[in-house]
Every structure is written in structure tokens, then in C-alpha cells.
Amino acid sequence: MTSILLSDLYGRLIKQKEIAQGFDVILGNLPDLILDTPDAPIVVGCFLARTIADDCLPPKIIDFFKEKNYSDLANQALIKAHNLLNIKHGLTRLDNVWGVGGSLRPVQYLVRQMNMLLDEYLCSGDLQEAIRCILELEVPHFHHELVYEAVVDVIEAMNTHTEIAMCKLLKALYDAIIITPEMMNKGFDRVFDVLDDISIDVPLASAVLERFLDMCINAGFLEREVLRKIPTRASARKRYVSEGDGGRLKEA
Known about the structure:
Belongs to the PDCD4 family. By secondary structure, the chain is an all-alpha fold.
């Protein structure tokens, strides 16, 4: 809960410099802290990694702290933080570093994690690792956001590689009943709702989306009737902040 509080206060009441100063004090006091808390270096390392994953501190802060030569205990904490951040899908896995379920995380954080997860999947092509990270987020009620972000990525990328990769991922999630038909349809419906807005920056958005829909229909996890939902004219529909999903397109 402390990590969540720090993330929520950052930028409002707490500045990045103040967070860094706090860790500076803690790292310097580890020889005393370990007397009452033997695993203090591990705890501090986890906390530092989580703070970086929450974008409250930059990753380079670890190198900055290493140059200060605190103690061997501080080095243990810094090595722990570095290792957590550099394991495969480390930023996503840090969501559960304290055993906290994803449902307790801020919506904006979950959206960011899903975007990073999709980006890493497109780079690595590791389907099973992507699925594992999705499950670790523990937010089945929010899987429509994953579908939405995946489809928007397809539209913005406008290339076959992204279409095939995202279709493969969504089909695997659908077949494994990780993403339910309800969440799948809701995610696509949200894309339809903002297609007019997306088309401003991506004029071929409708054509790319229709091609991707055909691919998904042929893959067997979408019904052909979904093609009727594609907007045929400007609808002026917007996505409001009150929806609470932290998405990219919102009413000006």
C-alpha cells in the first residue's frame, strides 16, 4: 500500500527529488536498519525497483546511487533493484512484487503496463510470456482495455507483422478463456466508438481495421456480424475521462 500511496502522491505533493533524497537516507542507514530487519536490503531493493516501475524515479537513479559507495548492504539493495528491473517483462512483474493484486492498482498504471506488455510482445514474439504477464496483472474485468490497446496498435502500425501478432495473441487469450467474449466485444466496440478520432491521424484507419477484423473472424474468435459495427460516417462520438480507463483519446 505504501508503494501505491507514493505513486499516487508523486507529482501532486511529492517531487522526484524528494523521493530520491528519501532513498538516499534509507540506503545510507541500512547498517542500522538491518539490526531490526535482517532482510532490509532485499526490501529496499524491491521498493526501489517498484518506485522506478511506477515512473516515480528514472532507471538511471540506480547508477547514481552506486557511485555514492554507501556500504555492501546498500550495494545488495541496488543489485536487487537492478535485477528486478532487468528480468524479462520485469516492469510488468513488479506489479506483484508485494503480492498485491492488480485490481488495487490505479487505472493509469494498468493501462501503462498493458501497453508495455504489448510492446514487448511485438518485439520478442514470446506468446506464452505475454500471456503469463497478462494473467499476473489479475484484472479480468479490465481485459477490454488490453483488446482496445491491441487493436489501436494494429491501426497505428499499419503493417502485416503487427496484425498477425495481435491476432495470434487475442486468439490465444480467447481460446484459453482468459479474455471472455464479453471483454473481447467490449474492447472492439470501444475502438469503433473512437474510430472517427483515430482517422484524423490515421486516414486509412477504417481500411486497416476492416482487414484486421477479417483476420480475426477467420481465426474464429469474432463473429462476422461485427463488421456491421464499423462506423460509416462521422459520428462525433468521443471517449470521456469519466470512463475511467485511462485511454489515449479523450474529449478536449
